[in-house]
Amino acid sequence: MRKTTVPVLVLSMLSMVGMLFTGCTQDTSGPSGDAPPPGVTNEEGALKFYALTDPFVVNEDRTFADESIEPTDYGTFGKIAADVIPVHWGRFPESVTATATVSIQDGDSTAIVNVVKDIVGTFRVLVKYNENDTALVLIEKPFVDQSVRNIMFKRVGDDSVRFWRNWEPVATSLVDGGTVAPPADQTVNLTEIQFVRPTGVTVTISDPTNFYLHYRWKDIPAPIVVEDVPELSANEPFTVRATVVSASPDTDVAVLRYGFSDISRRRMTIPLISQTDNGDGTFTRVFELATDIRHEPGLFHAGVMVVSKKTLYTDDVVNYSSSWWGIPYRVL
């Protein structure tokens, strides 16, 4: 186990750095220009290229990564009965390997590109062993996570010369991510997310990779049903509700990650509101948070991330397990 003692003075310096959690400021890019992208020699290659460079696909990495070890809610967790007392934490991907697979559908009019990312990194937690400790200890936990999302393309041409312009991205699924082979007693799985606006309009997601959001403002061929990217006004309040099925008898930790601007992000604890023992060694937990949009207009990405309690509250490096879904949204 790697442990490093960190003076409390350093903590105040870390907290000023901020978190790397970026929002998109413009619509996703599509095929254009009089030359194909580098290395692209056919339509399938073009579909893969535009899927892997789609802003929401790229932004996903930033949404669930941290630039520094930060406190949740910009404050401490407080005292909880556990092996350690976590004060600051951060998730730091070190390598991301993305693979794209193309599936042509609907009589060659629609294509789905499945994007899988294998993510290797380190989860870092600054902890105290006792409430009165004046120095913090850095715990580093290696992790292997994986995320999946689908990008939908619509055929807009059949040019054998400018083949890279024949398909245009029109919608994205949500991203579904989590730990590969977590400890058996720490398996956590998001099963539903709801976003509720003051008007009562609710977006409910239970199957993230088959829930498509329409962000290119193009017609989607029937029978595919696609909802528009959620639109909110600056300062508009909203509620996020997340349902989790967990193998851990100890309450998991859920957070909402969303963007203020290109240089300022936010990570907030989502409080637990209910828990049910399923009687099969798992627990269903519901977390809910009411907050508001305070950043400037543009396209952004919000993420709900859940980690097992042992991820934060033990110093054993094998104790890491996470589950996350990400959703794009527009601020008007």
How far apart lie the N and C ends? 47 Å
Helix count equals: 4
Fraction of residues in helices? under 10%
Classify the beta-strand content into a percent band.
over 45%
The chain-level mean pLDDT equals 80
Round the Cα radius of gyration to an integer and report it.
21 Å
Output the keywords.
13-stranded mixed sheet, five-stranded antiparallel sheet, mainly beta, about 10% helix
Detailed description of the structure:
The chain is built from four helices and 18 strands. It has 332 residues and is mainly β. It has one domain (3-331). The strands form two sheets. Strands 1, 2, 3, 4, 5, 6, 9, 10, 11, 13, 14, 17 and 18 form a 13-stranded mixed sheet that branches. The protein has a five-stranded antiparallel sheet with strand order 8-7-12-16-15, with no helix packed on it. A hairpin with a 2-residue loop joins strand 13 and strand 14. Mean pLDDT is 80; it is low at 1-29 and 74-81.
Describe this structure in a few short sentences.
The protein is mainly beta and 332 residues long.
SSE topology sketch:
Layout: E1 3-7, H1 8-14, H2 43-52, H3 55-63, E2 85-105, E3 110-128, E4 135-155, E5 167-173, E6 175-179, E7 188-196, E8 202-205, E9 212-214, E10 227-228, E11 231-232, E12 237-246, E13 253-261, E14 264-269, E15 272-277, E16 283-292, E17 298-307, H4 309-313, E18 322-331
